């Protein structure tokens, strides 16, 4: 383990070296949110609340799209992907948490990028963070608008439902503190879990998949091992990876924990449950639906169960979008007000920056949701383009930064060092290959009519 601690003394940088000064601040300032008279207390989240917030950040979107990814890869490679990626995602989350313990002034993944690579890496990491979470925030809007479509029998233009969904997501994410939205994450998590459970039970009661021809022979499409094209396989792998890669959002929550030392415990409980749920739910749904699985998977058990599932799960879909957009807005909010008295003050500037930032994030998410209205394409694009370097490559770099001496240490230390270099290489491959794959599939979807023109009234809820 690294011997470097957050209280280590660092020699002052030259006065004209702003980057070095920022690094010193990140090492020695301690927690970003202060406690005491004159400060609005943001550090109010207990570890159980933290676990639920983490679980809600990860669980809702991934479980709705993994079954369709399993069809592409086959059941066995799909299960290996779920276990492998979730193990890596859990480990990377712990690396980020340990790095923050060593360097307590890091509020976000971008602060960590600044510490290891300077200002350019900080800005690049911040951009990737915003791209990643605005994309998955858009998936929350798509999921919510799909639910409204299903419940209303497509009574309005899909674009109008997207506007309604965006307003719902904005309102749900508007409280400033994670503590204030913790209670709704409980309700949102339970709603999605119950909805998925209903679908899992529902698909097991059908003689044949709801979307399949109800008479005559048909191709069921269940494969133990699939044979996808490179583009399709990369999209499926990126989708499964993305389903648990939102660990960069854990860090802003960690900054608002009563006791940040409980972070590791919260991560282990969250990721252990998520991995078990992903594996069991997706295998059962794919086993009973084959190629006829819907994306989001709530539509896989027929029209009646679809309405029941979406009716129960709509709260969870909305809360997912709200949490993702809240995290994105919180990053910008802290960057803008970090050195200002308004960061922890109930001032007009404080509220204006917060609500204005949140509104801007939701507007961008709405535009993306209207341009790419297919759920798993949004998740795959987020996974490959942003989460691969952010949630896999950067944690490898963070570990190397804190363990520089391992490169010339014992054999075991050299192996560990090499494995973290390999993590960075895997992230580059997933970023390039996955982004290529999803672009190819989105272009094909526009050509074959799976996606209509942007801002259209077409219902894409059954696309996969």
UniProtKB/TrEMBL annotation:
Membrane topology type: Multi-pass membrane protein
Any one GO cellular component localisation term in the record: membrane
Cellular location(s): Membrane
Transmembrane segments: 127-152, 158-174, 181-203, 230-254, 266-288, 308-327, 348-368, 374-394, 415-439
Keywords recorded for this protein, A-Z: Membrane, Transmembrane, Transmembrane helix
Claim: Membrane is one of the keywords in the record: yes
Keyword Transmembrane: yes
GO MF term (any one): L-amino acid transmembrane transporter activity
Pfam families with a match to the protein in the record: Aa_trans
Segments forming domain Amino acid transporter transmembrane: 44-439
Protein family (similarity comment): Belongs to the amino acid/polyamine transporter 2 family.
Name the record gives this protein: Amino acid transporter transmembrane domain-containing protein
Naturally occurring in which organism (per UniProt): Paraphaeosphaeria sporulosa
Lineage: Eukaryota, Fungi, Dikarya, Ascomycota, Pezizomycotina
């Amino acid at each position: 383990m690294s011997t470097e601690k957050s209280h280590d003394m660092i020699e002052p940088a030259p006065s004209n070296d702003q980057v070095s000064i920022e690094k010193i601040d990140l090492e020695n300032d301690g927690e970003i949110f202060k406690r005491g008279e004159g400060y609005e207390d943001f550090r109010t989240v207990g570890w159980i609340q933290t676990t639920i917030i983490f679980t809600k950040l990860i669980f809702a979107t991934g479980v709705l799209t993994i079954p369709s990814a399993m069809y592409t890869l086959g059941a066995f490679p799909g299960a290996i992907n779920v276990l492998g990626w979730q193990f890596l995602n859990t480990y990377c989350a712990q690396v980020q948490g340990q790095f923050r313990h060593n360097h307590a002034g890091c509020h976000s993944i971008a602060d960590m990028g600044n510490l290891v690579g300077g200002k350019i890496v900080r800005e690049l990491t911040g951009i990737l963070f915003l791209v990643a979470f605005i994309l998955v925030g858009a998936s929350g809007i798509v999921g919510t608008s799909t639910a409204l479509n299903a419940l209303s029998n497509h009574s309005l233009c899909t674009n109008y439902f997207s506007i309604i969904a965006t307003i719902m997501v904005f309102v749900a994410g508007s409280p400033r503190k994670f503590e204030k939205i913790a209670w709704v994450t409980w309700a949102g998590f339970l709603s999605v879990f119950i909805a998925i459970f209903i679908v899992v039970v529902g698909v097991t009661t059908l003689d044949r998949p709801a979307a399949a021809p109800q008479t005559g022979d048909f191709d069921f499409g269940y494969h133990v091992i699939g044979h996808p094209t490179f583009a399709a396989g990369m999209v499926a792998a990126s989708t499964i990876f993305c389903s648990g890669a939102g660990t960069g959002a854990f860090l802003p929550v960690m900054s608002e924990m009563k006791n940040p030392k409980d972070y590791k415990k919260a991560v282990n409980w969250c990721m252990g449950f998520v991995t078990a749920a992903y594996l069991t739910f997706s295998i059962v749904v794919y086993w009973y639906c084959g190629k006829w699985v819907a994306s989001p998977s709530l539509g896989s058990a027929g029209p009646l169960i679809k309405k029941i599932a979406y009716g129960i799960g709509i709260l969870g879909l909305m809360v997912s979008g709200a949490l993702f957009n809240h995290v994105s807005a919180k990053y910008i909010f802290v960057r803008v007000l970090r050195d200002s008295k308004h960061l922890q003050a109930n001032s007009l500037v404080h509220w204006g920056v917060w609500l204005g930032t949140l509104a801007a994030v939701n507007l961008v998410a709405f535009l993306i949701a209207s341009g790419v209205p297919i759920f798993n394409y949004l998740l795959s694009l987020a996974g490959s383009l942003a989460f691969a370097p952010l949630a896999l490559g950067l944690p490898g770099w963070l570990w190397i930064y804190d363990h520089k001496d391992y490169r010339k240490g014992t054999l075991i230390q050299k192996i560990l060092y090499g494995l973290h270099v390999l993590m960075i290489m895997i992230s580059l491959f997933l970023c390039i290959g996955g982004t290529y794959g999803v672009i190819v599939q989105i272009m094909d979807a526009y050509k074959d009519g799976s996606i209509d023109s942007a801002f259209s009234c077409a219902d894409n809820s059954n696309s996969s």
